[in-house]
Amino acid sequence: MAGLRVDLIRFPTQLCCAVLCASAALSIACTSTSTSATGPSATKCQVAATAAPVQFTAGGGTGTLNITAARECGWTLGVQSSWVSVNGSNAGSGDASLSYSVANNPAALVRTAEIVVEDQHVQLTQAAAACTYALSRSGDGIGAAGGALKFDVLTLTGCSWTASTSSSWISFTTPSSGSSAASVGVSVAANAGAARTGAVVVSGHSYLVSQDAAVLTPAPPAPSPSPSPAPTPSPTPAPTPSPAPAPAPTPVSISGILSLLSGTCPNIRFTAGARLIVADKNTDYSHGGCKDVSIGDTVQVNGTTQSDGSVLATHIEITKNAK
Q1: Which of 13, 57, 274, 295 lies at 20 to 30 Å from 309 by C-alpha?
Q2: Residues pairing with 117 in the sheet
Q3: C-alpha 55: how far from its chain's center?
Q4: What is the rounded distance in angstroms from the CA atom of residue 266 to the CA atom of residue 252?
Q5: What angle (nearest 5°) sits at the alpha carbon of residue 322, between those of residues 201 and 182?
């Protein structure tokens, strides 16, 4: 053991003693020899740990942990992060080679972890995930009275986004920016005019808001005064002419984003270019059919204006937009 001092005493051939005699003049002196020795110090166990690779992409992967130690030297290991796992025992002795796994990074943030073997710290680094963006809804319709709408921004933690709109009648009721997935609320003002469409744009993705036209109630007509009795005409008037025939329907061509779709094929109704479009069994289509019509499509409509202001479609050309 380190620091141990051993004293060895060697007796001479003569017996060492002190003899006290009756005569004070007689005495015999004792002699002895002393030797010291220090034992060797025990060597402390040395444990080394290395890993490869130590840098990973956002998709994760696997690596190898190498532990070097004398055969009689024991060791234990631990991992500080849940996204790193070591396959095999977390304790042993002597040399060892263990595999480990790094999970997929779900955030747009660089992260680090450590594998600790005794006093050895092996650091692993993983790259941030790439930012992607999507919206939970492509759009909604709302009545002329206005109200509240909501959609979700779908993205990773650490990904920044900002929502904006060029429509003065659409405002935000929640924060219009963030750095992770969140809900965005909007308020739509009452509409006093024709049907209208606006958009909220988030990282290149559009959420369309389609609002109905205002319903105008005509003022009641003023009562007519009681007529005075008419004198008998002289000479006798000619017969009253027949009423003029109703004017022929006016052809119209409309292009816009389709919204507020209702009805069942072939009889459907929708809004495009701030006009109400009516399709029936006589309507033909390009780039699809009645069942291919959906909100958010761009449509080119040819038809005629009806007496209520709607357009009876004779032909509809459909262009699919990315949702």
Answers
A1: 295
A2: 77, 120
A3: 24
A4: 21
A5: 40
What is the rounded distance in angstroms from the CA atom of residue 165 to the CA atom of residue 171? 8
pLDDT per residue over 244-254, tens digit each? 665 667 898 88
pTM of the complete model: 0.48
Q: Answer yes or no: are the C-beta atoms of 200 and 184 closer than 8 Å.
A: yes
Q: CA 299 to CA 273: how far, in whole Å?
A: 9
pLDDT of residue 134: 96
Weakly modelled stretches of the chain, pLDDT under 50: 1-42
Contact 175, 106 (CB under 8 A): no
> Cβ(124)–Cβ(84) under 8 Å?
yes
Nearest to 272 by CA among 251, 297, 292: 297
* β-bridge pairing 61-68 and 48-52: antiparallel
Q: Are 311 and 301 in contact (CB under 8 A)?
A: yes
Separation of alpha carbons 194 and 214, rounded Å: 6
Tell me which residue of 317, 214, 213 sits closest to 275, measured CA to CA.
Answer: 213
Q: Kindly list the strands in the beta sheet with 182-188, ordered across the sheet, starting from the edge strand earlier in the chain.
A: 134-135, 147-154, 182-188, 170-172
Sequence-distant (≥ 6) Cβ neighbours of residue 94 within 8 angstroms: 69, 70, 71, 72, 73
* Residues in CB range of 197: below 8 A, 6 or more apart: 208, 209, 210, 211, 256, 257, 259, 271, 274
